[in-house]
Design goal:
alpha/beta; Aspartate Aminotransferase, domain 2; Aspartate Aminotransferase, domain 1; 7-stranded mixed sheet; 4-stranded antiparallel sheet
């Protein structure tokens, strides 16, 4: 069976609404958001619909740009520390470096794959200024405890909700707990314009810093505008905004369909020895960017690489054993401190964790099997993946 893929139209939902918006942009001849209307409408509607009022939204070119804008809004000093997760896309780490800050890695749970208030608190120092809480695979962190810790310590809290739009904890949406929420509109996310990002905050001062930073710090609309500080150009185009605006009408249905099919799949495999799903708090709602399993090799009869390889080769299920393969700090850019020339700045003096200091991280990666998922999976697709997983484990047990 060929599964729908979020890399093409088979696993995506684009239609006449997106085409109509694109046609309107092209007919107008205005593709730049500073004079267009679609990006500003996207910002206004996402802030109102997602935040429920009182929020400010800035649309940018990627999820990485969203994280960068959020960090820049904090006006960090050189050498300030930002606590983040050990298992994430590098796009959530490099913005810390770009702002002259040092990433500090908190451990993740071996079963839930997320940071916790306890793992964050364990790495706090007098230099810590902010925490980035990443809701990995669409499953929320324990935001009650993390928010309380950040308030108590006077730390900014940024939520990386790139994989978790519309996920909730105690009924509150991810990206609205912290000072700033960051979202991605990349190809494989729940709603997409190919590449794009959204930055959400209720704080008007942070909102102004974000908006300035995303556009060269030029004070549009100010009495005497100027370039107030060093900043890039992360403006979203009207073409991307047109697609994203139409996608905004689809995303809640996309989330519901992913939840329905993913939960049906997890029910079908619940009795398989050595296989468990990502642990999710009963107070949380997972939105399943991917479906992630934990494999116990002794009970399952094989490890994640063997199982993932056979699922791909025999059944065409392109999964990701170990997800990002290794913790972020083992990637060359951080491990070898390849930043600005040979300076290693701003991490020249950083000492990275070890398996002893982050046991949950290494345990999780060794057992993590990430299955592809999207909103166009049907009952037949769910049954096929479940049957393929069973057949794969039977093969290794035979």
């Amino acid at each position: 069976m060929v599964l729908p893929s979020d890399a093409d139209a088979s696993g995506r939902r684009f239609g006449e609404e997106e085409l109509a918006n694109l046609r309107a942009v092209l007919d107008s001849g205005t593709l730049n958001c500073t004079r267009g209307t679609f990006v500003s409408r996207l910002e206004q509607e996402f802030a109102a619909r997602y935040g429920g009022g009182g929020f400010f939204c800035t649309a940018v070119t990627s999820g990485t740009a969203a994280i960068h804008c959020a960090l820049a809004a904090l006006d960090l000093e050189i050498g300030d520390e930002v606590v983040t997760t050990s298992v994430t896309d590098m796009g959530a780490i490099t913005p810390i470096l770009f702002q002259g800050a040092v990433p500090i890695f908190a451990d993740i749970g071996a079963q839930n794959f997320n940071v916790s208030a306890g793992s964050i608190e364990a790495v706090l120092t007098p230099r810590t200024r902010a925490v980035v809480a990443t809701h990995l695979f669409g499953s929320p962190c324990d935001m009650d405890a993390i928010s309380a810790l950040c308030r108590e310590r006077g730390l900014y809290l940024i939520e990386d909700a790139a994989q978790a739009p519309y996920a909730t904890f105690d009924g509150v949406r991810m990206g609205t707990f912290g000072d700033i929420g960051c979202f991605s509109l990349q190809q494989g996310k729940h709603f997409s314009c190919g590449e794009g990002g959204l930055v959400l905050t209720k704080n008007p001062d942070l909102a102004r810093r974000i908006r300035l930073f995303h556009d060269k710090a030029w004070g549009y609309g100010d009495p005497k505008p100027d370039h107030y500080f060093s900043a890039p150009n992360y403006r979203m185009t009207e073409l991307a905004g047109a697609v994203a605006l139409a996608q905004l009408d689809r995303v809640e249905g996309v989330v519901r369909d992913r939840q329905q099919s993913a939960n049906a799949f997890l029910d079908k495999i619940a009795d398989i020895p050595g296989v468990s799903s990502q642990l999710v708090s009963p107070r949380a709602q997972n939105v399943f960017w991917k479906v992630t399993l934990r494999i116990e090799p002794e009970a399952a009869g094989a490890d994640v690489r063997q199982i993932g390889g056979r699922l791909k080769d025999e059944y065409g299920i392109v999964c990701a054993p170990r997800y990002v393969q290794k913790p972020a700090f083992e990637c060359e850019v951080l491990r070898d401190k390849r930043t600005l020339g040979s300076s290693g700045w701003p991490i020249q003096d950083a000492v990275w964790p070890t398996p002893d200091t982050l046991p949950g991280t290494y345990d999780a990666l060794a057992h993590m099997l990430v299955l592809p998922w999207n909103e166009n999976y049907t009952r037949e697709h769910v049954e096929y993946i479940a049957a393929s997983l069973r057949a794969t484990l039977d093969f290794f047990h035979s």
